[in-house]
Amino acid sequence: MKMNNMDISQIINELAEDRENYFNAVSPPIIQTSNFVFKKVDDLGKAFEDEMGGYLYSRGLNPTVDILRKKLAALDGAEDCLVFNNGAAAIFAGVFANVKSGDHIVSVKAPYTWAQKMFDVVLPRFGITTTYIDGTQIDNWKNAARSNTVLYYLESPNSWDFALQDIKAVGALARSKNIITLIDNSYCSPIYQRPIEMGMDMAMQTATKYIGGHSDTLGGVLSGTHAMMKKIFDSEYLNIGSGIQPFNAWLLIRGLRTLPVRLHRISQSAIEVVNFLKQHPKIEGVLFPLDETFPQYELAQQQMKGAGGLFTFVMNTDKMESIVKFCESLQHIMMAVSWGGHESLVIPKCAGIHPKDFDPANKEHRYVRMYVGLEDPSYIIADLEVALREI
Ligand SMILES: *Cc1c(COP(=O)(O)O)cnc(C)c1O
Predict the structure, then answer these.
(1) From the CA of 206, how far away is ligand 1's center (Å)?
(2) pTM above 0.85?
(3) Could you tell me if the CB of 283 is within 6 A of ligand 1?
(4) Residue 386, Cβ neighbours under 10 Å: how many?
(5) Is the CB of 218 under 6 A from ligand 1?
(6) Residues whose CB is less than 8 angstroms from the CB of residue 265 and which lie 6 or more positions away in sequence, other chains included
(7) Cα end-to-end distance, the chain, whole Å
(8) Cα separation of 157 and 206, whole Å?
(9) What is the spatial distance between Cα 152 and Cα 222, in angstroms, rounded to a whole number?
């Protein structure tokens, strides 16, 4: 597979690794340092002037983080990227650096929780407003844009109902209106979707999920042009201090080594589990972008190369207790937030709903989000089968 004219194997195994400089070790060192030494006042002065030009202090650039940064930018097919301590920080910096008081944002409805909190709680304090739209219709993007709209915020697919946006069409529309675009590409990762090549200005993804892959670290990526990344580095990145730490960056480099094989396995297993659930009488339906029953299946096939292991199923019951019983009857599949690790997970939507507000007529209340991990698919299916028999 070629990414940005570079083989993905080269990006993962070689790019940015300068082994001769560290004893020809295959695995890169964790440069666990806060600061870097200078011999010449002139060199120190230059580092003050352009902190992105070299190593001064690890709140800015760090050599271990830089190895990861170069690999992730290449995976995204972007000129450059910044690596954050988590995905939420990457979203925050990407948005915050591009808005000022009086500006307006158009966002897909129900974006990732902490994107929504920023739009609803933080930005209004600075006089910045957000309009949420159903992003599946290109006309909604057109109609919601005002003269003070500066940013379109996308998340395709969304991570609960997997609603897609036509990324190329939204990108072209935004360009024609001089509106900056930022997409949350966490669901697909750059292995399965390349938003920068489709006309997005910035792509973000959480590295906590597939890149880390072992549920043992957090990380976030924001990519785009070098000019955009430098602008964000010189302001929000250094100011908020939300860059990733060297050890966590090292864990993500390690995660990258096996990213394609893990994703391949997870994608294959997810299809098996989806097919099992689809035919089960206690399941009303499954929401999975690359299943032919998905409302935007055609668009998903056009812009995604794969779908990974995350999907939602709708339980065929009118009782919240049945959903609770099902989730609590699983013996191997764990109940937890997040996804992208080795372990299969479920999370029922009703966990956030007060029992007296549970309305079975509302399909969403009967959603269970599932992530299929690296276990044997027959092991996962057997666990689901037993728990479904309990209700
Ligand atoms: C997890 C997640 C994030 C946030 O990433 P963190 O690393 O947890 O901060 C953003 N978007 C989506 C779709 C996610 O699933």
Answers:
(1) 5
(2) yes
(3) no
(4) 13
(5) yes
(6) 374
(7) 45
(8) 14
(9) 15
Architecture of domain 5-257: 3-Layer(aba) Sandwich (3.40)
Going through the chain in order, the beta strands assigned E by DSSP cover: 2-3, 6-7, 80-84, 104-108, 129-133, 149-155, 180-184, 202-206, 220-224, 283-287, 310-315, 334-335, 345-348, 367-371
Domain at 260-389, CATH class: alpha beta
CA 223 to chain centre: 12
Judge if the upstream peptide bond of residue 157 is cis by omega within 30 degrees of 0.
yes
* CA torsion angle 28 244 236 177 (round to 10): 80
Asked if 229 and 72 count as a contact pair (C-beta separation under 8 A), the reply is no
Question: Measured from the CB, is residue 98 less than 6 Å from ligand 1?
Answer: no
Banded model confidence at residue 2, pLDDT cuts 50, 70, 90 = low
Whole-number Å distance between alpha carbons of 173 and 320: 43
On whether the CB atoms of residues 308 and 299 are closer than 8 A, the answer is: no
Query: Cα separation of 197 and 125, whole Å?
Result: 34
Q: What is the mean pLDDT of the chain?
A: 97
Domain ranges across the chain: 5-257, 260-389
> Which pLDDT score is estimated for 167?
98
3-state secondary structure of 77: coil
- 172 C-alpha to ligand 1 centroid (Å): 26
